[in-house]
Fold this sequence. Notes:
Elements: H1 4-7, H2 20-34, H3 39-49, E1 59-64, H4 71-87, E2 90-95, H5 99-111, E3 116-120, H6 124-136, E4 141-144, H7 148-151, E5 158-161, H8 164-177, E6 182-187, H9 193-206, E7 209-214, H10 220-233, E8 239-242, H11 245-258, E9 263-267, H12 271-279, E10 282-287, H13 290-307, E11 317-318, E12 322-324, H14 329-337
Parallel strand pairs: 1-2, 1-3, 3-4, 4-5, 5-11, 6-7, 6-8, 8-9, 9-10
Antiparallel strand pairs: 10-12
Amino acid sequence: MASTKSVLSRSSRPTRFPRLTRLLALAAGGLLLAACSGPGGEQKGEEAAQNQPADGALRVAVISHGTAGDAFWNVVKNGAEAAGRDLGVQVEYNSDGDPGNQAKLIDNAVAQDVGGLVVSMANPTALRTSIQNAVNAGIPVITINSGDEQSAEFGALTHVGQNETIAGENAGSKFKELGKSKLLCVIHEAGNIGQNQRCDGAREGFGSDVQTLQVDINNPADVESRIRGAVQTDPAIDAVLALNSQVAARAVTAIQAAGSAAEVATFDLNSDVVAAIKSGDVLFAVDQQQYLQGYLPVSLLKLYRDNANVVGGGKPVLTGPDLVEKDDVDRIGQFVERGTR
């Protein structure tokens, strides 16, 4: 069977633009100079100051549910570390796909009295106690990527990421616009609340026949077999929505093996997906611009500590979705190559 790389491997390296991180640093600096805070912000700022004085280097722990070497989370890490360099913040990135282990990483960061926490919440229930303990210890927390509905409840300052339901709606609407009649939405990680929200949103946006398929991303051969079986069993399926690039690659291979006319779209960008959009193997990608999910929280935590700024007004700060299609993939692909999209 073809590997992910062999299915989605045709990519070229485009000309690089000026550094996105420099522009974001300037934007963060402008916000710092222009900001003003009310009584609530002043109180929270005083709490943050109990951990680390404003005249010292801020230390931020970024703890995600990604796995080592994952292309998506590498971009988040790149964003966080770039913000650290640009703003003089000490950033420590750790990740673990197991919710229990991720909670332990949060507990360790709290024990080390970090000045701020950035946490992704694919499994909010498993992380609730650890995050609330951090908040109770006076450590400001910003959640990212998943769990936006639980973020404020757990005491986080704000959430940075895309709204998964809105992103799913956009994908479903795009398939509908393209004239598709039956959509298969492939969930690859059991217990990940965001993936169910994506498929629920796709159902709302598509407005007609949508079914879901549960697979295990840790068993690529089974992923391919199940998708092939689904499109063979139901020839009416003419659209497949993958929720990550690895599943998209397997979906392309499965559809070709089944002789199906279904077409694939996916969530998230990497160089393989860029190449697949260029070749026509993938129709479009839903890009949540995860570089911002690393960069912005570090910036916001520094602004919070130094100027008591709170961003979002109780609502998430959205980093997407942005649909990337064939007509704009060349422009965006160059940023994927350099690790900022």
